[in-house]
Amino acid sequence: MSKAEIQEVAYGLELSEVNFIWVIRFPGDHKETDGIGQVLPKGFMERIAEKGLVVENWGPQAELLGSGKIGGFVSHCGWNSVLESMKYGVPIIAMPMHLDQPINARLVVEIGLGVEVKRDGDGKLDRREIGEVIRKVVMGKEGTEVQRKAKEMCHKMRCKGEEDIDVLVEKLERLCNKGRIPKEQ
How far does CA 17 lie from the centroid of its chain? Predict the structure, then answer.
């Protein structure tokens, strides 16, 4: 994300009035020049001190999503992030940027597992839209339905996963038994 986009997200998180953890990653060629202090709005860290935590470069995404304490996941909608969110039943606040992400975001919205933050006509993010969508998913009436569907998908994935593992184990046992040499008596 550009500095302007990072600032819009920062203001959007602040406007949402929800507690949050935000992991900001900088591309390799910006690590030396950029840092949280250079890109976040002036005074942001002080204003969100009671509500938010900003982490630079990496956070344990799967562990956070699996904690059961996350009400929504602001995601660029890369496929792995979408799958992790579905696995743990966490609704998605979709903010796709490029490649497959817009298509993944549309899928997430279409099946009811999230809400997309709409960009303006020039493709820019707006802090009010970000704050509104986050609040809607985490605390609003629409969010209740998205949360329900996310939990339902999580349950389906777990049940289906267990069925698939059982079938796999049976196939492996059959294969192992085919190659087994009978015991001599």
Answer: 19
> Nearest CA to 135 among 4, 6, 19?
19
Residue 41, C-beta contacts closer than 8 angstroms, at least 6 positions apart: 7, 10, 11
| pTM of the shown model | 0.82
CA distance 41 to 22: 14
Copy the structure tokens of residue 26: 């900088």
Q: Going by C-beta distance under 8 Å and a sequence separation of 6 or more, which residues neighbour residue 69?
A: none
Q: Rounded CA gap, 116 and 76, in Å?
A: 10
Taken in order 1, 151, 86, 51, is the CA torsion positive or negative? positive
Residues of the chain with pLDDT > 90: what percent?
69
- Contact criterion met (CB below 8 Å) for 137 and 114: yes
Cβ atoms of 87 and 109 closer than 8 Å: no
CB 41 within 8 A of CB 21: no
